[in-house]
């Protein structure tokens, strides 16, 4: 257990101004620390521990919780206006970091993370460190890692889960029986939000969004991935698949109406929570099924914490980041089933025991073969996702996705040319 005296000493008297002062509710450096968190299992878990931080730092914490989309919209509006009323931001490094850092909205944490021996920046997984670093400068700390995993009903596939995408399609199609309230497969189909999950199919077919700086979405490998994913959802998926994201998929699986789902492993508790799931005790986990290029799911730092560059409480905000993403807190969170971004936590047998055994094996497999991105690595990520999602939606709807992909690829090439000019921080 961290003692307050050790916490203060490690933080550094020069780096953390006003730490010993009791928090006040005003707007100055000694006011309440204001956090914006996404509606995510990590946010739920850190809220339960927030009293520990308040005791250590002698500072009150005010928390706002929003959906992922609301978080992004809030940041874009407030930070564009240089608003000082957010101190700590839970954010998606792959989605927001390039744009936010380029705009000067994120505090530079490079010296703080690298010069603090007890924080141990080297203990953070290398891929996760890379995602929060731009041009050698660190703008956030990773807090959650995730991979794409197969969720399945053990009672419906007693011989075990499919190991390949071909087997997944065949089994999902066989079990698909909408007349009797059973869907073979459910996956994200909304154009923008589905791109992250589609990426695992793309990589496993041997494709990528960007190849040598140019669009890769009309390559033979990408076309094969678009065809497969569209056919899977069209022939074995629910009605209205193009309107579905995680929020719609989770409840129908939990109600026992779906045989297979592929989605992020970090949100597995949403699928098996005994308070909401009728099939939690019958749910199994497996690695992403292998395609022609093998099993290549995304393996990413999906969420991080950053400090608002306009906050008058930047020192106290770093103090929170240091505690929330430090070795001790990450191990404790991982024991509760939240996959963190520290090597020490993954090597801790007690921390690994927080996951079901088959899920832990799936995570290990995804870490070994995964790709460290789940969307185009560009500044304007939202726009890029809209573009590359077009052929996927066309395929799900049974339209001419090949023509759509070729047309979209030209648009994406133009986009990448403009993006290259914007990448400089």
Automatic annotation (TrEMBL):
SUPFAM superfamilies: Periplasmic binding protein-like II (SSF53850). This is Sugar ABC transporter substrate-binding protein.
């Amino acid at each position: 257990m961290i003692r307050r005296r050790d916490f203060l000493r490690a933080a550094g008297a020069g780096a953390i101004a006003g730490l010993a002062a009791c928090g006040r509710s005003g707007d100055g450096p000694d006011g309440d620390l204001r956090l914006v968190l996404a509606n995510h299992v990590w946010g739920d878990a850190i809220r339960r521990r927030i009293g520990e931080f308040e005791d250590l730092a002698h500072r009150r914490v005010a928390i706002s919780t929003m959906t992922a989309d609301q978080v992004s919209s809030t940041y874009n509006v407030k930070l564009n206006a240089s608003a000082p009323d957010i101190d700590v931001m839970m954010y998606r490094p792959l989605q927001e970091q390039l744009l936010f850092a380029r705009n000067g909205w994120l505090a530079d944490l490079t010296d703080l993370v690298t010069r603090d021996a007890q924080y141990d920046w080297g203990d953070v997984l290398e891929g996760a460190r890379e995602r929060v670093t731009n041009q050698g400068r660190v703008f956030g700390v990773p807090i959650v890692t995730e991979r794409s995993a197969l969720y399945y009903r053990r009672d419906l596939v007693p011989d075990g889960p499919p190991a390949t995408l071909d087997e997944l399609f065949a089994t999902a199609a066989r079990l698909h029986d909408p007349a009797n309230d059973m869907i073979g497969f459910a996956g994200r189909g909304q154009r923008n939000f589905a791109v992250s999950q589609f990426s695992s199919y793309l990589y496993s077919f041997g494709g990528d969004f960007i190849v040598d700086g140019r669009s890769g979405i009309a390559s033979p490998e990408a076309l094969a991935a678009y065809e497969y994913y569209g056919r899977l959802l069209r022939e074995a998926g629910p009605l209205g698949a193009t309107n579905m994201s995680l929020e719609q998929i989770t409840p129908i699986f939990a109600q026992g109406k779906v045989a297979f789902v592929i989605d992020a492993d970090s949100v597995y508790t949403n699928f098996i929570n005994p308070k909401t799931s009728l099939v939690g005790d019958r749910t199994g986990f497996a690695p992403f099924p292998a395609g022609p290029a093998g099993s290549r799911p995304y393996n990413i730092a999906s969420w991080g914490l950053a400090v608002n560059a306009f906050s008058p409480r930047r020192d106290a905000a770093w103090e929170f980041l240091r505690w929330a993403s430090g070795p001790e807190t990450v191990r404790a969170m991982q024991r509760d089933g939240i996959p963190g971004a520290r090597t020490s936590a993954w090597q801790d047998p007690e921390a690994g025991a927080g996951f079901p055994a088959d899920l832990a094996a799936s995570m290990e497999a995804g870490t070994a073969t995964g790709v460290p991105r789940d969307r185009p690595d560009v500044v304007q990520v939202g726009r890029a996702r809209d573009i590359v999602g077009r052929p996927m939606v066309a395929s799900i709807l049974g339209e001419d996705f090949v023509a759509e992909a070729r047309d979209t690829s030209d648009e994406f090439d133009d986009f990448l040319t403009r993006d290259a000019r914007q990448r400089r921080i």
